[in-house]
Amino acid sequence: MDEVIIIAAIFLGLPWIIFHYITKWKTAATITNDDEALLEELYQLAKRLDERMDTVERLVASDNPDFKPARVQHDRDIDNQPLRELDRMLGQKGERR
């Protein structure tokens, strides 16, 4: 009887434990749907805040001609390239859903 228990433990129990922890390891490294939704919400919030900053800077620049914004500007290609890449990646992700 002891031999049956040992053989069952080796051929059933051991692979089950190994596959169980492999599955846990793989799912722990992925982004969940909640994480993706939060990232999308934060991205949209950042875009809205950027538009608001543009408006404030235009108002200040209209009052003070010497005003030079020291942040990333929406109308320069060097500043827009990372944003375009992010928009492209989000668009591709939306197409896959």
From TrEMBL:
Cross-referenced InterPro entries: Phageshock_PspB
Comp. bias (Basic and acidic residues): 65-97
Coiled-coil residues: none
One of the GO BP terms on file: regulation of DNA-templated transcription
Region (Disordered): 64-97
Alphabetically ordered keywords of this record: Membrane, Transmembrane, Transmembrane helix
Domain of life: Bacteria
Transmembrane stretches, start-end: 6-23
UniProt KW Amino-acid biosynthesis keyword: no
Protein name per UniProt: Phage shock protein B
Organism per entry: Croceibacterium atlanticum
